[in-house]
Amino acid sequence: MSVVKINVLTVPAERREELEQRFSGRAGMVESSDGFEWFELLRPLEGTDQYLVYTRWRSEEDFERWTQSQAFQRGHAQASTEAAAQGQQGQQGHGHAAAPHQGPGQGHGHGHGGPAATGSTLWSFEVVQSTGPRNGS
């Protein structure tokens, strides 16, 4: 069955919009990757400052192949470039949001004004059971 990767990003309230814009700017980067099944950016509603970046893959190998791909590298280069451009416009926060593959403390913004996220942890799961809505009979 599938493999799920959840990147837990700690994001201060004043950086939430920035983080979401960074992910929106990278839309489409992962969807054509072989073995990619699903992506969701989950915003916390209450009681936490942690966003969840949920991706589902056909296999661990497909996920690893994505993290080594040129598309993945371009996505991070694009995020860094956009963050630098924001800095030239006088906006706070530069660097890029963490990508789903990164482990603790990695990839949560290495740009010129600090990260959008202040921490990052990767959780990995194997899907054991899965279900969806029932069709009316």
In short:
This is Antibiotic biosynthesis monooxygenase family protein. With 137 residues, the protein is of the alpha+beta class. The chain has helices at 16-25, 60-67, 70-88, and strands at residues 3-10, 36-42, 50-57, 119-126.
Can you describe this structure?
- 27% of the residues lie in helices and 23% in strands.
- With 137 residues, it is an alpha+beta fold.
- It has a single domain (3-126), classed as Alpha-Beta Plaits, CATH 3.30.70.
- The chain has a 4-stranded antiparallel β-sheet.
- Mean pLDDT is 77; it is low at 88-112.
**Number of helices, where a helix is a run of at least 4 consecutive DSSP H or I residues:** 3
- Rg (C-alpha, Å): 16 Å
How big a fraction of the residues is strand?
Answer: 15-25%
List the strand order in the largest sheet: 2-3-1-4
Indicate the mean pLDDT: 77
Number of strands: 4
Question: What CATH architecture would you give?
Answer: 2-Layer Sandwich
Order of secondary-structure elements? EHEEHHE
Question: Unreliable segments (pLDDT under 50, ≥5 consecutive)?
Answer: 88-112
Stated plainly, the CATH topology is called: Alpha-Beta Plaits
Major sheet attributes = 4 strands, antiparallel
Helix content: 25-40%
Distance between the termini: 27 Å
Reading off the top of the CATH hierarchy, the class is best stated as Alpha Beta
How many domains make up the 3D coordinates?
1
- Give the class from helix and strand content and strand pairing: alpha+beta
Which term fits the overall shape? globular
